[in-house]
Write a sequence for this structure.
């Protein structure tokens, strides 16, 4: 995937203003909305089963994040995904905390089984929990043993391709090194800041941004890669802006500001993407 | 409406610290609370049907925002509005996304029918959806065809006065040019920043601020106009503070900061209000 | 309690990264998560009754905040508290708005009766409502008559010790002067900024931070005192950073940034703790 494609993937979002329906957790929902607005997308949130069908109908895609499930929102997720599927809209699934509880693992697995999920975006522990049915997640964090490193990079890429092949979804596994893969191609992205692990919502925002990219770009692999690079480069830019007294909340501001300011040219110049087989 | 009245309307909020009960969406609720605190009002959020009656009783007014409905919160809205009505407290309704789904349009229409809503605050598409029963909203955004411009300003003001006459509510229609009207008088306000459209919650915050103004000011038209000018001038001040690296999240900070710092004198000097008939 | 212990209490949090399960309100939940991340703790939010047991099992402690109750979350609070009790995990209770509604007062009282709450953290009006069964709270604010001052400091400390003796919980009563007490010892803390009263969530963040301290420190009195001092000193540092145009939202950023930057040494040097009997 060349950086010209990555550049174009962002520009398509900026010029088409995709309307994205998000069923997401109440912890980071405000950041998700502002992150979508930052990249010229338009967010709408709705989780009530009686509301989601109409809302999905007027949107271009759906993002489902299971970070704070309840029984009503689970029903809303299924109803919205059903309508999105009927309409051929891309669905992005963020399995927050899969592996940390039976309800989360089961809900994510059910959604993945029942609908043609375009892109799954999670950390490596969550994706492994979905792949294995094994509960090894440390809450919403990554288990230290799972982290993608240079040493296990090829094995991790193979795992990602295998997951993509089995589910039919593009997968974006994010962490210090991000992996984006479909069943045959896999890429590593080395952008981003350690500070993204010190704010809540870095992953949730990325999932929503991925939704916007998936609406604006027909190629799901390019959409996932464009979203991962956009967020990663914004993380780099945000870290460079940190002053002496700044902590994680200033970083959050700088991250969303950087998403707002980022143009395709800068993205192409700073994206650190490599083929990994 | 002269600017001395506008000035006084803000000063009444700052000196009386109105306690405002908000049933609002979970996307922007934190910004709403901080915006109320910024103008020296005191927010309380409660949507559980078993809780809202007691909470409304100790408050001076009620703000209902339908941005993220669910069946329990709809019941809470009705219960709270019933108690507010019995106590003679002003109610502000923000019909977020009316026109975008049947549930939203119906819920807003039901509330408007059943209770003496003091002020309805929305964008032009939402107000038209309520007026027409027609679903033409683009999610929570304005349809391009609907935008209030200099060309359609008098017609838009007439529409607003007519809506006010039919509903018995003051109406505040916000956008690039804001219109505030009761059944006989209508005003245009030309404050505010384009950046308010690039953050989530600009409208929600205004609705909550309108609630605080309505508690502190008996005249609902003055309350709505004071709130619209206050938020618009804060938007101008926030935009003036934007630096080279600042994006939409910095703008959000500057907007609420500007609400915090704004005094009646500055408000009166910068409010751009005109009679439109 | 010497300042070396206070210093150590923070350092224990920073080095052990306690995983804290929060059932908290949707108004300030994002700030709570970022405040926990700022002090190197790890937050997870879950309120669905079917989810909370598994989540509590993988965490070290539980924070319950009743700021926006609904019937499902009340059930989730009891289920989570039951599991925390079985596992011997510390529970922190924040009775937001106790006294403002029957549902809030009753829910807080029920939780306090049914489980061995390690620490109760609230403002003086909320704690008095719990102590007296009397409803005298002004929403989520303090009634002016209740404020802890130099004049009533010893009486307030005696009230706190008595409350601790009757409930078996450590109590942290926060305001212009904070009081932290168990049944026999009581301390006043004179850190913090008036601006903490002009943002939403200052109390909620403190309660979550208290949860992290309670997981990392076996001594509940030290945990509460460490958390109160940490938040208070961060408030002092944040206020010192305020610029001419800064308002309450900048203060919120500076507060969480200060939590992020605060080390044990600075905490020990700036904590203003005194014995009060």
């Amino acid at each position: 995937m060349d950086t010209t494609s990555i550049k174009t993937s962002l520009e398509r979002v900026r010029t088409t203003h995709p309307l994205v329906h998000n069923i997401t957790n109440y912890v980071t929902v405000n950041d998700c909305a502002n992150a979508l607005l930052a990249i010229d997308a338009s967010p709408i949130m709705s989780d009530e089963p009686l509301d989601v069908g109409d809302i999905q109908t007027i949107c271009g895609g759906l993002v489902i994040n299971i970070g704070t499930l309840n029984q009503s929102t689970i029903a809303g997720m299924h109803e919205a995904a059903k309508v999105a599927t009927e309409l051929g809209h891309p669905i992005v699934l963020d399995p927050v905390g899969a592996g940390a509880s039976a309800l989360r693992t089961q809900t994510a697995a059910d959604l993945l089984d029942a609908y043609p999920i375009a892109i799954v975006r999670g950390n490596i522990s969550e994706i492994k929990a979905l792949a294995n049915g094994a509960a090894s997640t440390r809450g919403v964090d990554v288990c230290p043993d799972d982290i993608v490193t240079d040493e296990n990079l090829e094995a991790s890429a193979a795992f990602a391709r295998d997951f993509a092949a089995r589910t039919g979804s593009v997968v974006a596994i994010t962490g210090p090194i991000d992996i984006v893969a479909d069943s045959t191609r896999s890429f590593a992205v080395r952008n981003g800041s350690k500070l993204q692990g010190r704010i809540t919502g870095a992953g949730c925002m990325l999932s929503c941004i991925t939704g916007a990219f998936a609406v604006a770009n027909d190629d799901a692999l390019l959409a996932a890669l464009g979203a991962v690079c956009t967020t990663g480069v914004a993380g780099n830019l945000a870290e460079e802006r940190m002053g002496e007294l700044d902590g994680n909340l200033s970083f959050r501001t700088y991250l969303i500001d950087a998403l707002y300011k980022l143009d395709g040219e800068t993205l192409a110049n700073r994206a650190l993407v490599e083929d990994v087989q």
User: Anything to note?
Assistant: Chain A has a mean pLDDT of 95. Strands of chain A lie at 19-23, 42-45, 61-65, 91-94, 119-122, 170-173, 178-181, 186-189, 273-275. Chain A touches chain B at residues 19, 26, 29-30, 33-34, 37-38, 42-48, 50-51, 54-55, 58-59, 72, 241, 252-254, 256-261 (CB under 8 Å).
